[in-house]
Amino acid sequence: MAQTEKKGGLLRKSSASKKPLKEKVVLMYDEIFTTEDPSKCNPRFWEELFLMKVNLEYLEGKLEALDGEELMKIKDNINCLFQHCIQALGEEHPIRVVNALQTLCALIRGVHQKNKSTSGFDIINMLVGFDKAELCMKNLMESLDSLLCAEGSESLKSLCLKLLLCLVTVTDNISQNTILEYVMINSIFEAILQILSSPLSRREHGYDAVVLLALLVNYRKYESVNPYIVKLSIVDDEATLNGMGLVIAQALSEYNRQYKDKEEEHQSGFFSALTNMVGSMFIADADEKISVQTNEAILLALYEAVHLNRNFITVLAQSHPEMGLMSTPTSPVPTTPVTPLGTTPPSSDVISSAELPLDADVQTSNLLITFLKYSSIVMQDTKDEHRLHSGKLCLIILTCIAEDQYANAFLHDDNMNFRVNLHRMPMRHRKKAADKNLPCRPLVCAVLDLMVEFIVTHMMKEFPMDLYVRCIQIVHKLLCYQKKCRVRLHYTWRELWSALINLLKFLMSNETVLLAKHNIFTLALMVVNLFNMFITYGDTFLPTPSSYDELYYEIIRMHQNFDNLYSMVLRISTNAGQWKEPASKVTHALVNIRAIINHFNPKIESYAAVNHISQLSEDQVLEVVRSNYDTLTLKLQDGLDQYERYSEQHKEAAFFKELVRSISINVRKNLAFNTLSQELLLKEFSTIS
């Protein structure tokens, strides 16, 4: 018997030369695309249609092939198909429900494709008709809500979420997607929360649910009252918030694991041997090849949770064994599609296991640690646009955390010590730190390490000014908390001071190039004021008196950099020009640093002359510093421990609009035909009762 092949909705015998035969479902689609009512000749037309396996490709292609005028001619049939799809969602037979959901996906996407190129074309009118839109969409949302909350098929729930993601992302700019007005009116927020609070549902659908929520929160968020924002901000159920945190932690852990695997594979490969052979000249190129696609969607979800919900802050510190280090319980393969590296939803929920192995060698972790590791990876390479956006969002999230009183309490808690292995960029002048030598410290030390790492590694021609400003602001906010609560943090402050001085040195060395693009004096002022903060209030939060002495030692040792900075800002502030005012602010801010240098340098020179020493040791300089504090006069500077709180709407609206557009395009791309495949679903519903 000749083998039958299928292609594009056509059936043909490979050995015959006869005209190809069309599948029955394709013939039925063709009837819909005429101006006649298909149920006139066949009263059971709609009933039969939803028993047929959907041909998504053919249906979408057919819709896209028509121009706006042709589509308007068959509008009544399209409306009828849409309404019958919604009716079928209430059917008992799961096969009909599956087919209806997939047909809706094809209809929404196909009609939207036409909307792109045809001006004045109204999507809602085309799909449902204005007169029936409100009732139809209400019925659709209620059916989806019921399917998501029911105890039935997990595959159906997965398909419902796919349809909702399809609905949300058909336009690049989700705020221009008028269908979402009905998703706002007929909220599915509680259904999303139910998925996140149940271990089984969370394991199967948590990733899609979290991404969907993040997108819905961003619909017209600045223009009108978005009910999803209001509801997310007041969630206080512990199981739900922890569930959301787990989904985010697992997605970020998966990214971190994939990056580590690639890094190890890279280091053990041929390129590593070649790099060792020819020196470090290829380090930058080699590092760029260790590339795992960033996951802005899950990062956006973390941001919205941290920014909108004060209760979510507690989830950041919720301890659990490090994901990826412990064996995970076996679970059914999720119906979530295979997505690009870095966006793969986790396949199992390690915390849902009733009993966790108590293994002394398993490092305890939490969402914040996982996020800090993720940040340390994506912030390495800011040349790539996606990584730049990810890096910026990481710093915005850390800004929100650094402003929160409760978050600061656990960040600085001496009883909550962790070993956080951040990724460090390969650099010629330093060796890679051994993981085992990392001390257990309060989490704020890891945040400061991350900031220092960024400051040290991004002094380059394409200077990421915005990220540097955010970095310094985060350090400043943490210091303000330490000063206010008199927290004496045992941290290697010298590393931070050294990084800040090197940053000032870089700004001065590249003054001409940088001033053509940036106001470098704003950043210089922030750096100088960090030093002023240490000078003025350091005795209240530095761990020991000797730490305060070391601060003075560093300022004196690196005095040439401060002298050069003063000369530069004085020169610019005395000339008329656009930088006169910002430069003069730096001049005034340097008053105490210059007082320290001018007070101690002569005394150090005198000590050296009296004791006939050509070069003083650090201990000798510190001895001079300690014995001459009494005669030092400093000016009291106001406002050093004040800062402007983060505000999304006024400063970040454009960034988030662009970010959400990028996420919408990416999510839509991953909802390809194969992800809506029926094979798994049909196996589950192989019998129709």
TrEMBL record:
Species assigned in the record: Erithacus rubecula (European robin)
Pfam families, per the entry: ARMH3_C
InterPro entries reported in the protein's UniProt record: ARM-type_fold (IPR016024), ARMD3-like (IPR039868), ARMH3_C (IPR013636)
Lipid metabolism in keyword set: no
Stretch list, region Disordered: 326-350
Ranges annotated as biased composition (Low complexity): 338-348
Domain Armadillo-like helical stretches: 435-671
Protein name (Swiss-Prot/TrEMBL): ARMD3 protein
Cellular compartment(s): Membrane
Highest taxon listed in the record's lineage: Eukaryota
Gene behind the chain: Armh3
SUPFAM superfamilies: ARM repeat (SSF48371)
Keyword Transmembrane: yes
Cellular component aspect of the GO annotation: cytosol; membrane
